Amino acid sequence: MFYIGPMQQQTNRRIFLGGLAGGIVSAPSFLARPHVIGKVDPYFTPPAEWRGKFGEYRSPLIFNDGSKVETLADWVRRRAEIREDWMRLMGQWPKLITEPKVAVLEEKRRENFRQLKVRFIWTPVESTTGYLLIPDGKGKRPAVVTVYYEPESAAGLRGNPFRDYALQLARRGFVALSIGSTETTNNRTYATYYPSIKNATVQPLSMLGCAAANAWHVLAQRPEVDSKRIGIVGHSYGGKWAMFASCLFEKFACAAWSDPGIVFDTRPSVNYWEPWYLGYHLKPWRKRGVPTADNPARGLYPKLLAAKRDLHELHALMAPRPFLVSGGSEDPSQRWEALNHTIAVNDLLGVKNRVAMTNRPKHAPNAESNAVIYDFFEEFLQG
């Protein structure tokens, strides 16, 4: 045995953390820093009433066999176990499209950026149309994927209040790619289904995450984009989508989730039981709405509840990458009980200020809540 002093322990931790980050996301500089302070700093601290409270959620720092995660190396193995569990339960993604071919359908000049209407394959069986906003300037810049029911809202083409994330980010110097599930939104099946809606082998919400991972590659191959600094954001349906994409695909450097319902709940809008999220089953589909004895949830969702699995496990996969929950009516301050579990993981990794939440009374985003989202991306992708 030999003594390792505090300075050497911290050095070893930083080396390990840098290696962990490198394995996850090509190591943006903030991932190796032990502490980040900026404009969003107040939102990383839970209110006193929720500080240190973990609710009834099972700790992600416990292996499936009941043993505890005690070291950084343990966490690497536990992280892999969590992801493998969820991918097995939801269905394995098809191979990602790492060299996507992108067709430019239209180009326009807007404000301080170019707007390209683009089309690309986002699953092996589907293509999509979106908007790529490229600000003026030279050199590689940070970028954000924005996800919603359709791509026009985030691109600022529908006048949808406070959902124009791509437009606002482009104004701030980010390259932004706005995508949405337009076709399935129009026919009210909402998600994307692989290999088909008649025989999906991947839960639709997870498959949306796969589609967003392919969109990451669209941005990463752009000469204007620094692939180490790509984030993702979405609201409501898009918030669920952004959450699953960023948790399951490690190359998203950070993420903001606007009021998706970050854990399972019986609130009508926290509706993971629907067949287009985690309750896929063959048609005819159950009647839309909260499960009841006469209209029970089907598919994977009730099995997850029975096994006491919850989405805080996915949140933990973000560590040490930062994320912001822009909470509204579906994600009140009590959600810190779930978020505290990821804070505990980051404590083990020796990093602070990686899990943030704001709260507003209504589901709809507003100027104040969105301002924090933009500050968050500026802090972690531009700062």
Structure description:
The longest helix has 20 residues, at 6-25. Residues 1-9 have low confidence and may be disordered. The protein starts with 5 loop residues before the first helix and ends with a helix. It has a nine-stranded mixed beta sheet with strand order 1-2-3-5-4-6-7-8-9, with helices on both faces. Helix 6 (204-220) crosses helix 7 (237-248). It has a single domain (103-382), classed as 3-Layer(aba) Sandwich (Rossmann fold). It is built from eleven helices and nine strands. It is of the alpha/beta class and 383 residues long.
Question: Concise description?
Answer:
This protein is an alpha/beta fold.
Give short descriptive properties of this protein:
single chain; 383 residues; Rossmann fold; 9-stranded mixed beta sheet; 11 helices; 9 strands; disordered N terminus
What is the strand and helix layout of this fold?
Blueprint: H1 6-25, H2 72-90, E1 103-110, E2 113-123, E3 126-135, E4 141-148, H3 151-154, H4 165-171, E5 175-180, H5 182-186, H6 204-220, E6 225-235, H7 237-248, E7 254-258, H8 300-306, H9 312-316, E8 323-327, H10 336-349, E9 355-359, H11 367-382
Helix pairs in contact: 6-7
CATH fold-level assignment: Rossmann fold
| Helical fraction | 25-40%
**CATH architectural category:** 3-Layer(aba) Sandwich
Protein structure class? alpha/beta
SS elements, strand count: 9
Radius of gyration (CA) equals: 20 Å
Which H/E pattern describes the elements?
Answer: HHEEEEHHEHHEHEHHEHEH
Q: What's the CATH H-level superfamily name?
A: Alpha/Beta hydrolase fold, catalytic domain
Strand order of the largest sheet: 1-2-3-5-4-6-7-8-9
Number of domains in the coordinates?
1
Specify the number of helices: 11
Query: How much of the polypeptide forms β-strand, as a percent range?
Result: 15-25%
- Give the N-to-C terminal Cα separation: 42 Å
- Unreliable sequence segments: 1-9
- Mean pLDDT over the full residue set: 93
CATH classification, class level: Alpha Beta
Shape: globular
